[in-house]
Amino acid sequence: MELQQAQERIAELRAVIEKNNRLYYEQDAPELTDFEYDALTRELKQLEAQFPQLITEDSPTQKIGGAPSAKFEKVQHKVRMESLQDAFSYDELRDFDRRVREAGVSPEYVVEAKIDGLSVSLEYHNGVLYMGSTRGDGDVGENVTENLAVIQDVPKKLDNAPSLLEVRGEVYMPRSAFEKLVEEQELADKVPFKNPRNAAAGSLRQKDSKITATRGLSIFVFNVQQIEGKSFSTHKESLDYLKEMGFPVSPRYSVFHSMEDAIKEIETIGNLRGSLPFDIDGAVIKVNQLSARPALGSTAKFPRWAIAFKYPPEEKETVLRQIDVSVGRTGVLTPTAVFDPVLLAGTTVSRAILHNEDFIRQLDVRIGDTIRVSKAGDIIPEVIAVTKRGENTQPFEMPTRCPSCNEPVTHIEGEAALRCTNPECPAQALRNIIHFASRDAMNIEGMGEAVATQLVEKEYVKNVADIYALTQEQLVTLDKFKKRSADKLLTSIENSKQAGLGRLLFALGIRNIGDKAATLLAEHFGTMEKLQQASFEEISEIEGFGQVMVQNLLDFFSKEGTADLLERLKQAGVDMQDHSEPKGNLLQGLTIVVTGTLPTLSRNEAEALIVQNGGKASGSVSKKTSYVLAGEAAGSKLTKAQTLGVPVLDEEAFLKMLNRT
Hints:
five-stranded mixed beta sheet; alpha+beta; five-stranded antiparallel beta sheet; D-amino Acid Aminotransferase, Chain A, domain 1; 5 domains
């Protein structure tokens, strides 16, 4: 490759990797799989090695992690939290061993499972948890002490502890907790996390630690960063000490005297990975002798005394036997592939979601085909390709009638999905009830899918209004229910009556009306009665409400049975008024665009303040924009504002407008 070609390809690779780094580290929502990301990073490293004159300090190969979020207090790490160099073949591990020996070290190696989570530091003063922080960019992280303190496995107090102890660990989400969270998100019509790593990161970086506490997070601690009054000669010795102090450490770690023995252990861990209750994406090899670490040193990004072996994604071929179609809460028909069972990432799978008709056509997958299946994030089975066409196969056609109620299904314009529009469809009724009771809706604790299913099967509940007519006598007939658990559920049902108009509107499961839209409706109209009487034009006045959303809302209120349902809820005592704080008018009539990273406010927080004070938070700059609120790395929006002559505010000036300084 010529220098000019290399320069162009390096620029292209850096742009893609940097974008994914921001999504991965700062928003916990990457677009690339780990395998795709690793492949691009390896290509960039190879090109930079071939053309070292093109290496720059801001290259993603020279940096650690991502920038700390503005919504948390920044923490300067006393001991740098480095990343690890990745290896994808055993020969790369042998090269690592050669470099260690060439540096004059006769190594022992400790091999540990590489937990796929979010790296954190825990600092203890006299045995008491003093500070917990994320890695951030390795030098500066985020103060997430309150969130770490609600994780059950994080020790809050240590017995017989030194005056200062800082340890490094990985916060992760067990697979069972991830599956439960994804189910809740899907019921609430939210985009679910793609994998447990993203879920763990998103859960730990919540502004409200109460949310973090509900997510079932855990931690493994794997390194002593600093300690006073005690020293260790080996890494294994430090892990043994951490275990004695009550920290959860890697479930298996052993010392090996050769790289070949270490490689055998990596293979063993790889074979066990599917049977573990948590995700691992590799194994870590560390030089055991701590005295060798200073001698081996570090690059700008990696320590030279450790390396991470990354396991390739596992894929299997199998035969597609049938395609089942189920009905969701909003009536959407979802096809699911049913295939010969295969062992993937340690578990036997025989089903995978096919999303919609367009997805099936894109793959051209047919019953009888040989298909390739993998697990997204080693958790969710997915069909990724057709590898062999079966004999005499025919293209799959979605049903023209609902599998649950046998009513005709329709294609909604602009959507890929088919939908059952029968309001009495039994499948939809169950999903509606589960959604209505979910945490972000009416928050009826104890009415999950299993309980809701029993209530529907026994015909105690046919629609959400029936929930408020349940009795203790009915509930004690449910599986595993006794008087105490029945009373507890009835108390939760009673408490849910005070959820308020916004949560009620979201709980009713109106198409395209999510929790934010429901809140805006509640704030704008104040009562259910006023909203029921609102016209198309009146609803359209709300910022962000397009034609489809407004029409869906009007369709809901005009649908047969809606008025009776709302009247029953009202008679049961369900609050149908908005009780949010009234908006101010300090920014009345102003349109403000937020861009870049602000010193203390997140973008969402700044936009919320704009709306709360009567302004309009816009996403694009135009001549009609009143101000642009700009932070660091503001980018093209700031440039456009300067070109158009739009006034630019910093955070301090913005807060002065709100009388907050």
